[in-house]
Amino acid sequence: MSNVAARFRLSLGAFRLDVELDAPGRGVTAIFGPSGSGKTTLLRCVAGLEHAPAGRLEVNGERWQDSDAGLFVPTHKRPLGYVFQEGRLFSHLSVLANLRYAARRRSGGLSRVALERAVEWLGLGAVLDRFPERLSGGEKQRVAVARALLCGPGLLLMDEPMASLDEESKTEIFPYLERLHRELSIPMLYVSHSRAEVMRLADHVVLLDAGRVRATGPVNEITSRLDLSFGTETEIGTIAEARVVGRDDEFGLTYLEFPGGRLSLPAGRDLSLGERIRVRLLARDISLTRQRPGQTSILNVLRARVVEIRDGESVLPLVAVDTGGTVLLSRITRKSLVGLDLRPGVEVYAQIKGVALLP
What we know:
The chain is α+β, with helices and mostly antiparallel strands. It has two domains: about 5-225, P-loop containing nucleotide triphosphate hydrolases (Rossmann fold, 3-Layer(aba) Sandwich); about 235-355, CATH 2.40.50.100. It has helices spanning about 40-45, 95-105, 115-120, 135-150, 165-185, 195-200, 220-225, 335-340, and strands spanning about 5-10, 15-25, 25-30, 55-60, 60-65, 70, 80-85, 155-160, 185-190, 205-210, 210-220, 235-250, 255-260, 260-265, 275-280, 285-290, 300-310, 320, 325-330, 345-350, 355.
């Protein structure tokens, strides 16, 4: 079976980790939560750096731990790559020598990445002769990722790899991580406390809180759940996977299709027909109406059905609507909620005032 299935119970002083997860066997699973929720501890258990007395772990059909059977594969025998917050490169070796060291220590993992391909994927051709002290923060992390890949991992673990980087370095490294996302056939567990990173990179999300799994599921489902409020007030919205299906050069528009409808947005980025991209639809940019609008400057109007309403006393109501494949969130006033007589099952039209491409 193609998945990463784990169950760990572990006590560290006053902290207790008690989690069960079932992540896809390919793509990026983000482990997200506040500081102290157990994200790094969970990753260390997966790596075997923490030995959970009660635990089991299976990666794409291969058992690495089963406490009931007395099985515990030590870290050095697990086919995994681990990228820490700091690059942890050998300071006395050049970039090329760091990579060759990793290549020589391959553990016979499920997937092998040639040195030349790792250099290409991470854009390291121009820095191979440099030593770590002459690398930027982003370059060090790219070398660290390449080194992890050269171990031939069947699983890639990344523990907040951008936490120590400035914004410029984060901007530099993102495209390389996205390329790995597209190219790699192995699963990646990506620990982060950044919602922006999760929304941009993750396919699947595991939300941790106080050592327990609060929620888990595809990123588009997690971001659209009303009970989770995945983001600050200005960030609440839905992530959708879309495909470029057309362009209108006369009016400077690009057309996208996603599960649930078709979107128009101003042409900005150079997008190719057929290209798959990720878009963000913010709740504050979506209004609702019971009747199809007539003449309006809003280009994106989708027929939808109300599926859930969260109407707290301290915040504006949040309405979840299903467009026939994607759940969108709309932040409206309580007066609008009452005036439109909105309730689950009611048919509405969602007017989308803004569509953001995730870069």
